[in-house]
Design a protein that fits this description.
Number of domains: 1
Order of helices and strands: HHHEEHHHHHHHHHH
Number of strands: 2
Oligomer: single chain
Radius of gyration: 26 Å
Distance between the termini: 42 Å
Structural class: mainly alpha
Helix content: 55-70%
Length: 335
């Protein structure tokens, strides 16, 4: 039997062995990631969200025939409460009867459905742009501090400590009350919503030190590896080593941490706008929609439900995506 088994194995020969291919690093990451159904559902939800708040909002505005800031004269009922879903009301400017899918938003009688879509666009703009700015600055300073060490590490570490100790909320209030109105006008030709640049500045100034600390610790350990010593022996410059040898090893923590930071900034925008120092009315955001609905939470609770559910689902999707990416890049993290 043993001889027959050996003979059968030999008959398979090099033809079958030649079909075996080694899987690369990114292929293994993808194979592990696609087995995580929760993370895949999060990806599909986030793609759906982007499609809804960008081309979907534009299409919905054309279909209903009015914009998110249009006021409706009969958007309030006899009790001066916003009308409910699927109500037909009169547009203040055109005088036409138009449909409010989710009803009116507040005492001004604006379309809750359109403001929810455009508010999602504003919240995503703040979160994504702030994440990009935070990660660029954090990765750059963290890599420099971890690789060069010495006085560069000392300066970056002291800046990190000062930023961590600085009262961020007081800075936000001071910024909003002084130059906030001028910064709100920076929209780059209408590409960004008013107020996005103000929150972008706040989040970047007070958020860069989190990724900087993570990247610094990672670079400190990578700097002692054999491949860095080999690169130094071949005469590679410091910048070449950072760019070509260290940064590829930092892709995984950068991607994973970015998804978690986006979720945090969606909540951050909602919190600051709720406090009145974020996105200002009439520009819609999920935060100021929740703040505007507080006056009606006992009579028309759905006004708080729609933006609240949107914030919860978006942050949950980004967090679950981050967990899935972490497990895909480092399967040992599950242990």
């Amino acid at each position: 039997m043993a001889g027959k088994a050996i003979l059968d194995l030999d008959s398979v020969g090099a033809e079958s062995l030649g079909e075996i291919e080694a899987r690369g690093y990114w292929e293994q990451v993808w194979r592990r990631f696609k087995r995580d159904r929760v993370a895949l559902v999060s990806v599909f939800f986030l793609v759906f969200l982007v499609l809804v708040v960008y081309p979907g909002a534009w299409l919905a505005e054309r279909l209903v025939g009015h914009g998110p800031n249009d006021i409706f004269t009969d958007g309030l009922d006899e009790g001066f409460l916003p009308v409910g879903p699927m109500s037909r009301v009169t547009n203040f400017e055109s005088g036409d009867k138009q449909l409010l899918v989710l009803g009116a938003d507040s005492s001004l009688g604006r379309d809750e459905f359109l403001r929810l879509l455009y508010g999602g666009r504003v919240s995503l703009q703040v979160a994504v742009l702030s994440t990009i700015g935070v990660m660029v600055i954090g990765v750059l300073l963290g890599a420099l501090a971890g690789y060069f060490r010495g006085w560069i590490d000392t300066v970056v570490s002291r800046l990190t400590e000062i930023t961590m100790a600085f009262p961020a909320l007081l800075f936000v209030i001071a910024l909003a009350s002084t130059v906030g109105s001028r910064m709100d006008g920076i929209t780059f030709g209408g590409v960004l919503a008013p107020g996005v640049m103000t929150l972008f500045l706040v989040f970047v100034v007070f958020g860069w030190f989190y990724p900087a600390r993570i990247i610094r610790a990672k670079v400190l350990s990578l700097r002692e590896k054999e491949f860095v010593e080999a690169a130094l022996m071949t005469g590679a410059s410091d910048w070449r080593i950072i760019r070509s040898h260290l940064l590829p090893h930092l892709v995984a923590p950068i991607i994973v941490y970015s998804t978690l930071v986006v979720a945090g900034y969606v909540l951050g925008e909602a919190a600051l706008s709720f406090l009145g120092v974020g996105i200002k009315l009439p520009t819609a955001s999920w935060g100021n929609m929740i703040a505007d609905a507080v006056n009606y939470y006992t009579t028309v609770p759905l006004l708080m439900v729609w933006p609240g559910v949107a914030v919860v689902l978006t942050t949950l999707a980004f967090n679950l995506l981050g967990d899935g990416l972490r497990d895909a890049f480092d399967p040992r993290s599950r242990l």
